[in-house]
Amino acid sequence: MQAAIVTGPGTMHVESLPLPEPGPGQVRIKLEGCGVCASNLTPWAGPEWMKFPTEPGGLGHEGWGFVDAVGSDVGDLKVGDRVAALSYHSYATHDIADASAVVKLPPELAGVPFPGEPLGCAMNIFKRAQISAGQTVAIVGIGFLGALLTQLAVAAGARVIAIGRRPFTLDLATEMGAAETIVMDDHWKIIEQVKQLTSGQFCDVVIEAVGKQWPLDLAAELTKERGRLVIAGYHQDGPRQVNMQMWNWRGLDVINAHERDPAIYIQGIRDAVDAVVAGRLDPQKLYTDRFDLAQLDKALDATRDRPDGFLKALVMYP
């Protein structure tokens, strides 16, 4: 198999390695591709805690493909099944996954890229946000995750205010049904705009989907009294401070929507399969850039630099 190995900050190469063999309760997947996650960017930058070189295929966790070997004690998967998996060495042409962490993809998704982990993540965040018809929902940060949540909230009958940095993504949010879009540039101006759009009430639900201090501060300001502040951004660059006086005064429900239970992750992927088949979720236009495995460095750099028109990178394997 071919596997990418990150050798240092911003450097990687591809090696040829023997195929891994699945153990009891495991399957091997011949991967079609793997999504590139923004959570890779801090390890890619090489912080002090990062150890190089990575394990072959390491950092990749958004893979999908076909089962091509089955270990013992696996009941409901067979060679040839097309699947999405929660596995962790998917910057490679093959990966091993526990059978319990694999979701079969139905015929309706044949030939369609399906990075299950981030799609499942969006479904789980949406479930935790408890969005319902008639609510006003602000989504702070319109990247891949924010765009998915915009679709889901609109499909649920909510009025969505999309707040993002790039005109390209705001146009996309409008296309997906957002009622209003606001450029994320000036803190107090955004607060005033949302205040006017909501007749001074602010929003029933606000989802922060950036993972930085300022958007978190902004999201809290946009949440109404007794509203729900949902933290979906991945905050991995240090501690955060919050305005607890305001959180107390408004009586906010604050939800950290990150899941760590593998069973919940997998249920989210199943829910994503159902949502895509039903048409409530259409991620295809969000996959803006595709790279070969040897171009993983370029894929990670693009995810970091976000050139015009970029939203989500997929690394594709022959």
Structure in words:
The protein has 318 residues and is an alpha/beta fold. The chain has 2 domains: 142 residues, Medium-chain alcohol dehydrogenases, catalytic domain (Quinone Oxidoreductase, Chain A, domain 1, Alpha-Beta Complex), CATH 3.90.180.10; 138 residues, NAD(P)-binding Rossmann-like Domain (Rossmann fold, 3-Layer(aba) Sandwich). Helix content is 30%, strand content 26%. Strands 3, 4, 5, 6, 7, 14 and 15 form a 7-stranded mixed β-sheet that branches. Strands 10-9-8-11-12-13 form a 6-stranded parallel β-sheet, sandwiched between helices. Helix 3 links the parallel strand 8 and strand 9. Helix 2 crosses helix 3 and helix 2 packs across helix 8. The N and C termini lie close together (12 Å). The model has no long low-confidence stretch (mean pLDDT 97).
Outline of this structure?
One of its GO terms (molecular function) is oxidoreductase activity, acting on the CH-OH group of donors, NAD or NADP as acceptor. The protein is an alpha/beta fold and 318 residues long.
Helix content: 25-40%
CATH class of the largest domain: Alpha Beta
Number of helices: 9
CATH superfamily of the largest domain: Medium-chain alcohol dehydrogenases, catalytic domain
CATH topology call of the largest domain: Quinone Oxidoreductase, Chain A, domain 1
Query: What do the pLDDT scores average to?
Result: 97
Radius of gyration: 20 Å
Largest sheet report? 7 strands, mixed
Q: How many domains, as an integer?
A: 2
Strand content: 25-35%
Shape: globular
Q: How are helices and strands ordered from N to C?
A: EEEHEEEEHEHEHEHEHEHEHEHE
GO molecular function: oxidoreductase activity, acting on the CH-OH group of donors, NAD or NADP as acceptor; zinc ion binding
Keywords: Metal-binding, Oxidoreductase, Zinc
Family: Belongs to the zinc-containing alcohol dehydrogenase family.
InterPro entries: ADH-like_C, ADH-like_N, ADH_Zn_CS, ER, GroES-like_sf, NAD(P)-bd_dom_sf
